Amino acid sequence: MNIPDKNIFRPSGETLTRWLSTRKPELIIGDIPITGFFSDLGNSNDRRWFILGLIGELVGLLLIISGGLNLGGAAAGIAFISVCAFIFCDIFFATKLHRNKKNKVLLENIEFVYGKDKSKWGNEILEKYTQSSILIERGKFVDFILRLSILLIGLIKLMAIFLLGVFNSIIPYFFFLIIFGFI
């Protein structure tokens, strides 16, 4: 068995690709801004926001199921199926919305490593930069559609809670409108 030197660490290509997809804050040393190259300090905040959003989503989905069960019959089945569809759509749209993060980080890192003067770059680097730029530009309209879809799903969930008559007062609906808007 060959044990590599502990001072020489080289992650796999898959790990490096996943690393590009994570959000990394900019680090400023003196007057030199260093792109999200070395740190992932913002991930703990992202995790907290994700958990808060997940709790809000679960409460909303449980209210939909509760309202469906209170009505009984076909409403219970429709509520359960709609909750499954909402979960699938939320995960699918959120995943697709973050698909270009890797390309954005790659562009920032290329500019940092090779400088902003593209005439000094090699053909391979310039081609990689151009391909990533094109993917980001093409994806702007899709990003808009995905954000709009996520917003519409949140409004549909709120309408489902309202139409199923989960609460007797209108005040909790405003609370859930704020929560779904926040998420």
Order of helices and strands: HEEHHHHH
Choose one word for the global shape: elongated
- Low-confidence segments, given as residue ranges, are none
In the sheet with the most strands, the strands line up as 1-2
The portion of residues forming beta strands comes to: under 5%
Largest sheet composition = 2 strands, antiparallel
Task: Please give the count of helices.
Answer: 6
Instruction: Specify the structural class.
Output: mainly alpha
**Helix share, percent:** 55-70%
Rg, rounded, reads 23 Å
How many extended strands?
2
- On the 0 to 100 scale, the average pLDDT is 76
Terminal residue distance: 50 Å
Keywords:
mainly alpha; 2 strands; elongated; two-stranded antiparallel sheet
Summarize the structure.
The protein is mainly alpha-helical. The chain contains six helices and two strands.
Q: How are the elements arranged and paired?
A:
Elements: H1 13-20, E1 27-29, E2 32-34, H2 43-71, H3 74-97, H4 101-114, H5 123-163, H6 171-182
Antiparallel strand pairs: 1-2
Helix pairs in contact: 1-4, 2-3, 2-5, 2-6, 3-5, 4-5, 5-6
